[in-house]
Amino acid sequence: MTGKNKQNYNKDYIELVKKIAPKTNEVVSIFNAFWVGGFICTIGQFIRYMLSFVFGIYGDALSSATSVIMIFLGCLLTGLGVYDRVGHYAGGGSIVPITGFANSVTSPAMEFKSEGYIYGMGAKMFVVAGPIIVFGVTASIAVGLVYYIVGLFI
């Protein structure tokens, strides 16, 4: 394929994709992501207040208990098929909170369960969440090094 034919082919392909791709309203998508993500965080804050005021849990135990409950809710809603519908509606708004991470671990585990517990669930559980963990740890190390270096000069 010559350069001229390749450019025409690429141009035709881009036009075809534009024609058949579903049209999205970015403003509505951003609004839905914002309010759903905020609502999930509000639920987490409500759980935190209830644990604090009703059960008298404070400090690190409060943070841990809130995280565990939110992870459990994310996994439960994924298992029931609710979180997928929320994710389809809200997009990135459902991915950002801790429940989105729970969803990204639970979904592949459920999908590959038929391949067995070791080679299916165990091996494929972090297919989606693995890169998140790797880049999160790498970013936290980089930030920690910057704080350490800045701390040497202050």
Which range best describes the helical content: under 10%, 10-25%, 25-40%, 40-55%, 55-70% or over 70%? over 70%
| Shape, per Cα inertia axes | extended
Which class best fits the helix and strand makeup? mainly alpha
* Sequence stretches where pLDDT stays below 50 over 5 or more residues: none
End-to-end gap: 61 Å
Radius of gyration computed on alpha carbons: 22 Å
Percentage of residues in strands: under 5%
> How many helices?
7
Order of helices and strands: HHHHHHH
Mean of all residue-level pLDDT scores: 86
- Number-wise, the strands total 0
Query: Which sheet architecture does the biggest sheet show?
Result: none
What does this structure look like?
This protein has 154 residues and is mainly alpha-helical. Helices cover 80% and strands 0% of the residues. It is built from 7 helices and no strands. The protein has helices at residues 3-20, 26-53, 59-79, 82-90, 98-111, 117-124, 129-153. The chain is extended.
What is the fold's blueprint, element by element?
Elements (H helix, E strand, L loop, with lengths): L2 H18 L5 H28 L5 H21 L2 H9 L7 H14 L5 H8 L4 H25 L1
Features of the shown structure:
154 residues, 0% strand, mainly alpha
Short summary of the structure?
The chain is mostly helical and 154 residues long. The chain is built from seven helices and no strands.
